[in-house]
Amino acid sequence: MKAIILAGGFGTRLRPLSCTRPKLLFPIANKPLLDWTLERLAKNGIKEVILAVNYMADVFIQHYGNAKYGMKFLYSREGRPLKTGGPIKKAEELIGYDKPFLVLNGDILTNMNYADLVKQHEKNDAIATIALYKVEDPSRYGIAETTEKNRILRFLEKPTRKEAPSPLANAGIYVLDPKIFDYIPSERPVSIEYEIFPKLAEKGKLFGYSFDGLWTDIGELGDYLRANRLWLDTEIEKRKISPSVKMKNDAEIADPSILGKNVTIGEQSKIGPYAAIGDNVTIGKGVRIEDSIVFPETLVSDFTSVKGAIIGENAIIERWVKIEDGCIVGDHVMIKDNVTLTKGVTVCPSKEVVESVLTSKCLM
User: Fold this and answer.
1) Which residues of 167-184 are buried (b: 16+ CB within 10 A; e: fewer)?
2) Of 34, 62, 319, 356, whose CB count within 10 A is highest?
3) What does the alpha-carbon distance between residue 56 and residue 162 come to, in Å, rounded to a whole number?
4) Would the pLDDT of 34 be above 90?
5) Ordered structural domains, the chain, with CATH
6) How far is CA 132 from CA 142, 145, 188, 280, in A?
7) Of the candidates 352, 355, 356, which has an alpha carbon nearest to the alpha carbon of residue 343?
8) pTM of the predicted model, to two decimals?
9) Active site residues
């Protein structure tokens, strides 16, 4: 069976980090989000993966090449953004017509069993089967109304809470029959959620598969941090510390946390809970890092505090710096001594910050 992963998004809500890397290569527990997905696909018997790429396509090709995790890799390049249905139609010849195939939104993190979804699809005379996940806020998602036999009667994209017929959200994971190609127009952007699924529901050819477990996207900063917390809770559980980590005896690690290769931690520092520290990060003494993601090759100097924030690659954070909830510090940024970044500040790559920023803004 083949899988196509929609990987063409620009990640605009995760700028400035997405200015220098595709969103799907953002680390979750020190491994790119897409790698967690690929590992699970391989375990579920997928032999061939098609990456539908647009933004920074060459980065994906360089990172994955023609094969990984025992699977063959193919690439379908979009000349322009084609939304969610257009990339499927564009990859029609690569996918083929002989059997159903999986479609995954690339920014989804889940531990679902893809094989079970495929089995559910095969039981029904369905053109499409959508993985469904119960959510608290239906206004963010496509919502399905289903029968007792899992046929989807209605599919509403981002309804209001009052309009939502159920709490079952489109999880961004589908099994599609090759007949789907007859429904998707060629050579233009197509939203499969708005244009295709409602038509299939009317014809009785759209089914749902409800599942429990872990599921989240990383569309926004809060989603990204939450995904990291969920993964640390469920997949890491306590802590994972590389054998090459060098840590002073009185430094503390609060579970769950993960520390990459060649991390150095100074005396009286406290890391975690919910901290993901990338490879080759240097942390000084008296540092506090909690509920945060620190990308590789970064320096966090003495007596600095980072809480609920993301620090990009090769950043230099000097002494007595305070970085508060919702801050994003881009790659190669330098933050000088005694600077405070208040809630929601973002700093673009290679920027030097010499004064405190006490209102939410983007420093360009």
Assistant:
1) bbbbbbbbbbbeebbebb
2) 34
3) 39
4) yes
5) 2-221 (3.90.550.10), 238-363 (2.160.10.10)
6) 10, 10, 27, 39
7) 356
8) 0.89
9) 158
